[in-house]
Every structure is written in structure tokens, then in C-alpha cells.
Write a sequence for this structure.
């Protein structure tokens, strides 16, 4: 098997760190017992391991193909997608009202993760459909919901998000696509959209494009953008796909990775205008998009974790098999599996520590989302919602940045074989490279973290996180006094140092964002990474405390957790001081900003 | 022009940091004036920019092709190679006695760099020829030198290095290729060699393979390996290529990058034995190889710097062109070139600081090489030789590791366009990934740095480097007291902290390498990176001092140097504390080594 779902660790995180039992107590989640959860993960793992994982390399070697406006998905994808629909996976966390299973995000998170680990190119398709579903749930009319949601939630039809244009990437203010009102109450859509994931394909009989465009009298900039639904085939009265709409896929991109996932250039309106239906109100498109984006960004963060997990599994398997060189401690006269060499262990431990800690933070975020939706206490709902919103740019930014390091180490563990495409490690390195870019680059996440998530509430939520870390630090200190395991002392020392660095960074942002915005935003990505390392380290500290208590129950699993947490403390957490130095030194336009444009 | 040789910075490093004038005073280098040096760089830059650089993307899109045992180089490569030979570039630093130009390594270094920046796949071919030349100069018989060196040094014939076999990569003790003595005084060579760069091609009429193999009675392990010369065509009496030798290219690899550079599987002896000629003495092959390897490893370090430079140039050019989003400081109402956004500046400054500092350290190492060869004082020759040997694993390991970060940032600066192959940024990201692997992985470099370069002399050379850094720190301190530029204070503070971390790491290695080798070697790569950051930072400190003195002569150039050094101090040097923590915490088998093989 090229991928084995890490169900044991997923269950550990869900139950011990992310409060599965608390989530199960929320209204409507009574079925979410540990047993059902385990059963769902096992069923998903079977599908992912047996059906999707083997197609991952197939898709890389046989990318989706464009031909005369049509796109054929990679071999085997159409059949696998039919099984995906059949299994009801698309509806996992969507409302039962429209045919979904209405499960909490905390349970959807590991399911998302395993899909993405098994086959990231494949998994981007249902992710985009999730985005379209969220948009319709948020702002669609009752008729739109009734017409489209059952088809999308069943997975029968797929969805896309059409934001980017050649001149408008991170900057949606520059968007030019036009929407002209027509006499039938619909709109005629004109324009070119690029980077449209699964924008055209043959896995589903219809594709529902969500498109940002401007109406004729819209204000300039981001306040004049509306959201439209543009189906590839206009539905007949009976719901079946009818007339072909005026949207054409003119090409797909030749990419570094994710080659099975077609990235389309879509041309709207070349034959008189594509028929589009306004979603919600005019000029509120960007607002709807931002709500959806939190879901999409969380999902991309999960992609980073998922690809890191798969790269780790492959590297660990190779390191156990490949025999080369005698051990430096003289414990064998002959060559040994390379996993016994200290540097290989260091690389694998780095991959593992980064991946597990990011998984923990992401699942914890998912549980805040569930509590924000369904907690009986309104003020607690708001509080959990604020924490989730705060964590989203960190989960997106940090989990995808670390996936670059993990997939790179995955190649390195393979030595020269890692550079040969047939080995497979290189695919993860290539695939991962888009993750810190799409759905908002790491800098865009950092801007969000600074502006909307740290400064807007005066640092209130950020400081709440520090207070929670302090609780864990107190537990660590008590435990370190009573227990000879040096992991507690090490974790206490390095988490404390990291937390202090994070507080200094928060204070820096609050003090300077207005008075010296260049300095603040020059430190944005370091601030995001610092926050990611500390918050993930906090999860590792929590894992350490729990695991030490339970070690006797399963010495190998909990022992590995303890060792990984210890490694995280001594190898990952110390990086925070460098980020703090970067942030603080940007003050006064030193360093980063001193070079003028022409000097580069 | 897709690549512009950074002649100004090269000349700055050569003259101000690496002592070009001192090198020119050595015997035989009287012609190496600043003027000739500049003229040679300009001529090289013309060839690299106009001929080689445009073929870089051609080669990536049209890899070398294998067909029935023959390999056709990518389109245009054969013609470019003819121009390379015509220009005499292969002989740059080789002896005049065999037709070379006998220039110092300090001058060869920038020439190597520009070749590799312009077209890394192309440049690997002459690099391997350099290796074959070094081997023959070191251990070839007078007859072998007379027969092969003029052909290799002119560039007419090319060379290869045949070390790796499927079961013997980093571990050459496992090598199995056989060499049987024949009655004609030659040997018959049998075996399979893999990963042979430019092992077969059509750019030259003959290829001289240097092959490691075992004679029948050789001792087991690395002490029973001999070095053989196996020409593709056995030379006729008149020196022209004669009978085809029994070595066949059975395939070439499908790789992540460096696609124009054919990586061959060579089969020796399937038709009765390839004719090989012993170089030097039997069983001393690995010893010769190690001498050569210092040259090859330096050259691969230059590859890291070269690809980083090219990725930087491309990213800076894009950032100046691409218009997107308003500046955070409100200095414009409309969108601006992205180079004006603080995070883009941070990324470009990181790319630039890493690249320039690594260039400086590599050229300084080259000048130690020249002094080690030709200084009139024997004890100083030895001293410079020891410093060069110490610096080689750092130049190789650190310059290639940083090339991963720089090429990755190069993609990130391009946003979504970076993931599209046609943009070109992705090629550098792919090409660079082999650099920390071939010619010895970073862990192998770290083992060399610890074992042969730090511990063997009891830390003498490593501590000499600290003493030199202390001299620079004293200068910085004096300057900081007299000058209001905060760069001096910042550099003093962070270089001092880095230097202390480096000293602790050296002491750790000396104390633990024997008593706890696992702990020492688990900290090997962090020790190498820490040393790289500090030693490169030291060069930036020296550049800062010189540039501040000369600023008035060329305010833009020296001002940029000062700002880059300042950035290095506050953004790169602070990383050393995390590496120190990693190294020291490996003691007592904590962290890295606590997980047993089965727990991964």
C-alpha cells in the first residue's frame, strides 16, 4: 500500500486534543461516538488506500488532457470519482436537508486529510465543490438551493470558483469580468478567468461555476464585485443538464505539479454571453467569498498536512529498506538500514514532528468551528468562532509552508533515487509547491492574521491563546517537578521561550501596524510562522502530557508521541527566536526595507 | 537577457574580500591584474548570456534523448559546446604544460559560477571533465597524462566519474565492479555503474570514463578499490579515437530536473570486458577520489550559488514588472509593482543575502586554495590548505541547502504564475533539488566537517576561523562607536551571538564525537548549517566594513551592500541559536534518537 491512513494518530488527536466527546454533545451530533468515528475513518481509509492512492502516480504521469475545449481526466479518475459519489463522501459535513450527512467538521477533517494524502489532484475537485456548496448555503436563494444543492452535495455535479483573471490575482480590485442584466432576470457574463481548478472535465455531467464579475453600474474596486452562478449546462425543468452555456475551456496549464488536476482558462461570453444567476445581492460578492474562503483556506491547510504525511510515510519506508554504510556508533560491522543513521533519523523526526503537530492544530481548529456553530451558549459560540477565524490563516499558512520542508526532506532521505521521477518522492515535492500560493499566498494569510485577526480586536483572541498556553505551561512545570523524563523540562523551557516571542510579536503588530505599516507587514510572514510553531508546539505539549499519563496503555504509540514532542521542543520551537528577531528588526525601515526597488 | 552575470559583485568579492591582489602576487599569476580579470569575466559573461542562457529552458523542455545506446544532447547543446571548446574555457585553471591557461582558482570561480547560472545542465559536463583532469594530474602516469590531458584540457574530449552502483551510493565499501588484469598490461572491466553524469552523449568524439573497480585479490571494503581509465574509444597511435570499447549506455534517467544533462546507466564488459588502464597504484582509488572530490564538491557548491543567483534575478525582474495591490503604507491610490510590498521585499532580500554571502565565502575559499598551492612559505601553504579543506564541506553543503530556499522563494515571488512551467521559475526549483544530494549529501558533508575537518586536528582550524571572526568583531565594535549607521551595531550583536553558538558547537563535537557518536552526528547537519551561516555572515560583516568606507565612490552599489549585510545580520544570523539548541540537545540520545526504527 503506498499510503496507510494514520487512523491511530487521527483518533488520538480527535479524542485527546480536539475534544471529540465535547463536539459529540452538541445538538445533532449524538451519533458521533468514538466507535462510529473509528468506523467512518476505517471505511474512508479503505477507499483512499485501495482506490485513490494508486491513481496518484498514474495521474502525475498521465495528466488531464485538453482537446477541443473538452478535458479528459487522467486514466481511472472518472471511475474513482463515481465510487466517491457512490460512497457519499461529498456530503460528509453538509446539511441532511439537502442529502448530506451533517457530520461535524472535526470528523470531516481527517476524512479530508486522507483523501488529500491519497490523491491530492483528485481531492481538489470535491474541495472546490465544497466551496460552491458553502456559497449557496450562505447566500443562495431558496430556489437556487433547491435546484443545485442536492446535485452538488451528492457529488453528482461538481463546482468551481472563478476569481482570478490575468491582471487580478491577489488583487481582486482589478477584476474586469462583466455581468449584464438580461430581460429574463438572469445576467450575461463576459470575461476570461484563469487558474480555475477542475474548470472543465469529464467526471461529472455538469459543472457549476461560481464567478465573480462586475455589473454595469458597480462601484470601482472590491466593493463593486458580485457573485454569479454559471452552470456549464443550464438545468432543464426536471433538473437534468440542458442547453450548453456560453463558457468554454480554451486551454489548461502545464504545471510543476498537481498534474492530474486540470487548471483551466475559461472564456465566458464569446458567443453572446454566458447565462449567469446572481447569488445574494449585487456588490456583495467579495463578502460572500471571504466567508467561503475561511473554509477553503482550512481545506488547503489540510492539503499541506496530507502531503507531508504521505511524504513522511514514503521516506520512512525507504529508510527502513535501504541498506548503506556502517553505523557511527560501531554497533554493526556491516552496513545497516539507513534509518539507523542519526541524520536520517533527524530528518524523519523533523518530518514527523511537523506533520503531527500541524494535524493537531488543524483538528483543534475544526472543533472550534463546530462549537462556534452549535454550542448552546451564544457568547461561547462567538468566542469559539473568533478563535477559529484566528487559527485559519495559521493553519493555511503554516501547514502549507511546512509541507515544502517536509516534502524536500522526503527527497533528501531517498538520496540520488529521490531525484529520479519513478521513485515518487519528487512528485510530492512538486505537488506541494502550489499550496503556499493558492487560496491566498502565505503573505496574504499573514496580512489577514495581522489585520483582521490580531489588530482588529486589539489582540484579544491572540492573547487568549497565550493564556491557554500558560495553562499548559503550568501543567508542564508541575509535571517536570514530579517526573524525571527530561521531555517535560525541555518542553517547558522551549514552549515558554516561544510563547514570549509570540507575545512580543503580537505587541509589535499592535504598536506598529498603524504608525509604521511597512515594518509590521514586513514581519508578517515571520509572525505567521512564529505563531504556527508556537501553537503547534502547544499541541505537542498537550500531547506530551496526555501521553505520559497513558504510556502504560500502549507504550510504543505513546512513547513515540513523547519522543516526537521532545524532538519538537528541542529542534522546532527554538526557531521562534529568529522569527522574533526578524519581526522586531523591521522597525525603522531597517533591513528589509532599506533597499530601494532599483537596487534589487 | 534571461541572465546577466553579476560582474560588479564578483569583482567586489574578488578584490575586497578574497584578496585578488595577493593571489596575483603568487608565482605565475603576474598577468592576473584587475583589468585582465574584468576582461575575462566580461568575455565569459557574453558567451554565457548570449549562447548558454537561452539554451537553459530549451534543454529543460527537450531533454537529452537515449536511442539504441546513443544519447543526443538537447537541441543547440552540441553547437554551444563547440563554442565552449573554441573559447578555451575548459582549460581555465589547468596547467599550461598541457594547453591550459593556468589561472588561479579565484578567477576560475566566477567563471564557473556564470557557466552554471547560465545553464546548469550544460555546465555539469565540463565539471566532470575537470574531475577527470584532476585525477590524471594527481595519479596518472606520464604516458597517460601526455595521451589524455591535452584532449581533456582543450575540451575536445569529455570526462566522467563512475563511482555509484545500485547497491553502493554513499557507501562505496559495497562497490562490486571488477577489474581483471589482462596480458597486455591493461585490465578488463565488468560491472554496472549508475548516475553517470554525461556518461554518454554526442557533443564530443570521445569520452574518458574514470571508473572505480576491484581487482581480483583486493581487500574487502574501501581499501580494495582501484581507479581505472576507460575511454569510450581506445585512442589510436596518432591520438584519434579508435576501436569502440566494451562500455554501453543502457539507459538514461527520467529526472526531476537537470533534464538536459543525461544521467546514464553504464554497462561495462558485457562483450568480454571493457579495456581499462590502472591510474596510479592498485587499491588507492578511493584516496585519489577523495582528493578530486574536494574540487568536485567546491564546484557543486558553486552550482548552488549559481542557481540561486539566477532564481533571484528572475524573481526581482518579475517583481518589478507585476502590478498588483495598493501599498500598505497608503503611498499610492492604485496598484503598484509588487516589489513595493514589504513581504516581496523580504523574500527578495533573503534570496539576495543568502546568495551574495555564499558567493563571498566560496571565493574566499578559492583564494585559500591558490595560496595553498603557490605561497612561497611552506608553513603558510599548509595553513591555507587546511583552511580550504575545512571550508569545502561548508561551501558544498550550505550553498546547496540555501539554493533550495532561494529557488523556492523564487517560485513564491511569482505567485500562481510560479507554478506554471512556462514561467521558468519552477525549473530552478526542480534543478536545484539534486545539489544537496550529489557529490555527497549534506549529511556526508557534515560527517566530513566533523570527522576530518574539526576533530582530527583537535579543532585547530575551526578555532582559527573563530579568531578571524573576532578580529572582524573588534573592527565592527570600533566602527559602531564612531558611526551612527545601525548596521554596525546589529551586525556586531548578531555575528557575536552566531560566533558563540559556533564555538559551543565545535566544543560539543570535540567532546562527544568519541564518547557519544550518535549525538555528535545527529547534530552534524545543524553544525554544518550553523557554520555556514556564521562564516557567510562574517563575509557580510567584512563587506559591510569595506562598503561603508567606500560608499561615496558608488552610493547605489555600496549602499545596497550595506543594506544587504544589515538584513543578513537581523534575518539570517539569528537562525544560529536554533541550530545550537538542536546540536546540544542531541546529547544523551534525547529527541532525535529516542524513537526506535519501528516507531517511525
Amino acid at each position: 500500500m503506498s499510503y496507510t491512513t494514520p487512523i491511530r494518530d487521527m483518533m488520538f488527536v480527535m479524542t485527546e486534543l480536539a475534544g471529540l466527546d465535547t463536539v459529540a454533545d452538541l445538538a445533532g451530533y449524538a451519533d458521533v461516538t468514538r466507535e462510529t468515528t473509528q468506523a467512518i475513518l476505517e471505511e474512508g481509509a479503505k477507499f483512499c488506500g485501495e482506490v485513490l492512492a494508486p491513481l496518484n502516480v498514474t495521474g502525475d504521469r498521465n495528466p488531464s488532457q485538453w482537446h477541443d475545449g473538452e478535458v479528459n481526466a487522467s486514466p481511472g479518475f472518472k471511475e474513482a470519482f463515481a465510487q466517491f459519489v457512490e460512497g457519499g463522501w461529498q456530503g460528509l459535513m453538509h446539511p441532511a436537508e439537502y442529502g448530506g450527512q451533517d457530520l461535524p467538521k472535526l470528523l470531516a477533517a481527517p476524512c479530508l486529510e486522507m483523501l488529500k494524502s491519497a490523491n491530492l489532484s483528485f481531492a481538489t475537485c470535491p474541495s472546490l465543490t465544497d466551496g460552491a456548496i458553502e456559497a449557496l448555503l450562505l447566500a443562495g436563494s431558496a430556489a437556487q438551493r433547491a435546484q443545485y444543492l442536492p446535485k452538488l452535495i451528492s457529488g453528482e455535479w461538481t463546482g468551481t470558483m472563478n476569481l482570478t483573471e490575468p491582471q487580478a490575482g491577489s488583487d481582486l480590485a482589478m477584476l474586469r469580468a462583466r455581468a449584464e442584466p438580461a430581460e429574463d432576470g438572469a445576467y450575461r457574463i463576459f470575461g476570461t478567468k484563469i487558474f480555475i481548478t477542475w474548470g472543465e472535465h469529464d467526471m461529472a455531467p455538469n459543472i457549476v461555476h461560481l464567478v465573480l464579475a462586475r455589473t454595469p453600474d458597480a462601484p470601482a474596486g472590491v466593493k463593486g464585485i458580485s457573485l454569479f452562478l454559471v452552470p456549464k449546462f443550464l438545468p432543464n425543468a426536471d433538473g437534468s443538464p440542458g442547453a450548453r452555456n456560453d463558457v468554454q475551456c480554451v486551454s489548461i496549464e502545464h504545471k510543476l505539479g498537481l498534474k492530474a488536476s486540470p487548471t483551466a482558462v475559461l472564456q465566458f461570453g464569446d458567443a453572446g454571453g454566458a447565462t449567469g444567476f446572481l447569488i445574494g445581492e449585487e456588490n456583495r460578492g467579495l463578502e460572500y467569498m471571504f466567508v467561503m474562503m475561511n473554509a477553503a483556506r482550512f481545506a488547503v491547510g489540510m492539503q499541506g498536512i496530507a502531503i507531508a504525511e504521505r511524504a513522511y510515510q514514503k521516506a520512512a519506508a525507504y529508510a527502513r529498506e535501504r541498506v548503506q554504510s556502517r553505523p557511527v556508533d560501531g554497533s554493526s560491522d556491516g552496513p545497516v538500514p539507513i534509518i539507523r543513521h542519526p541524520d536520517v533519523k533527524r530528518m524523519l523526526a523533523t518530518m514527523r514532528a511537523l506533520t503531527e503537530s500541524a494535524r493537531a492544530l488543524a483538528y483543534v481548529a475544526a472543533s472550534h468551528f463546530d462549537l462556534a456553530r452549535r454550542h448552546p451558549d451564544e457568547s461561547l459560540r462567538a468566542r469559539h468562532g473568533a478563535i477559529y477565524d484566528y487559527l485559519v490563516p495559521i493553519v493555511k499558512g503554516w501547514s502549507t509552508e511546512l509541507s515544502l520542508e517536509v516534502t524536500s526532506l522526503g527527497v533528501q532521505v531517498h538520496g540520488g533515487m529521490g531525484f529520479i521521477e519513478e521513485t515518487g518522492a519528487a512528485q510530492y515535492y512538486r505537488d506541494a509547491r502550489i499550496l503556499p500560493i493558492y487560496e491566498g499566498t502565505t503573505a496574504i494569510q499573514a496580512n489577514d492574521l495581522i489585520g483582521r485577526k490580531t489588530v482588529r480586536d486589539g489582540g484579544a483572541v491572540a492573547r487568549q491563546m497565550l493564556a491557554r498556553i500558560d495553562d499548559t505551561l503550568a501543567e508542564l512545570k508541575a509535571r517536570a517537578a514530579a517526573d524525571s523524563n527530561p521531555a517535560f523540562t525541555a518542553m517547558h523551557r522551549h514552549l515558554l521561550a516561544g510563547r514570549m516571542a509570540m507575545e512580543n510579536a503580537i505587541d509589535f503588530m499592535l504598536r506598529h501596524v498603524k504608525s509604521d505599516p511597512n515594518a509590521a507587514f514586513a514581519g508578517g510572514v515571520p509572525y505567521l510562522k512564529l505563531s504556527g510553531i508556537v501553537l503547534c508546539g502547544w499541541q505537542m505539549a498537550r500531547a506530551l502530557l496526555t501521553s505520559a499519563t497513558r504510556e502504560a496503555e500502549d507504550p510504543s504509540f505513546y512513547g513515540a508521541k513523547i519522543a516526537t514532542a521532545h524532538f519538537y521542543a528541542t529542534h522546532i520551537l527554538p526557531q521562534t527566536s529568529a522569527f522574533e528577531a526578524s519581526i522586531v528588526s523591521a522597525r525603522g525601515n531597517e533591513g528589509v526595507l532599506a533597499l530601494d526597488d532599483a537596487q534589487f
User: Anything to note?
Assistant: Residues 285-321 of chain B form the longest helix (37 residues). Chain B has 18 helices and twelve strands.
